[in-house]
Amino acid sequence: MVVSEKLINEALNSAGGKEQFARQYKQYSNSVLFIDEHRQDLLKKHDGEWIAVYNSEVVASGKKYDVLTRKLIRLKVPIKEVAIKFISSRKVVTLF
Questions:
Q1: Could you give the number of structural domains in the chain?
Q2: Is residue 75 a part of any domain in this protein?
């Protein structure tokens, strides 16, 4: 599938521009990397929970995804920059 340059520019503009998008993507990527690198430590405290990571720290957690997202809204964390992941020592299939 080929995406037109016009659509790409519209998407970038809706994200606040190319620089803003790049900053948000970098922050999000660093959060994902933090989860991957600290998985064993995170499991000790958050096994069987959804976690939200921003700026290399868990800013919210919960057994239910909707509870987690409500916490993030209350905290006014920039959702586009937060990595959200279910972390478990058991094998779990998540579809979304």
A1: 1
A2: yes
Burial group, residue 51, by CB count within 10 angstroms (0-12, 13-18, 19+): buried
Structure tokens at 60: 């919210």
Show the domain range for 20: 16-87
Question: What residues in the chain have per-residue pLDDT under 70?
Answer: 1-3, 15, 92-96
Tokens of 82: 């937060």
Tell me how far apart the alpha carbons of residues 82 and 76 are, in angstroms, rounded to a whole number.
11
Using CA atoms, how far apart are residues 2 and 78, in angstroms rounded to an integer?
30
- Number of Cβ within a 10 Å radius of residue 12: 15
| Structural contact between residues 12 and 37, judged by C-beta atoms closer than 8 angstroms | no
CA distances from 8 to 14, 27, 32, 54, 77 (A): 10, 21, 24, 26, 26
pTM of the model: 0.76
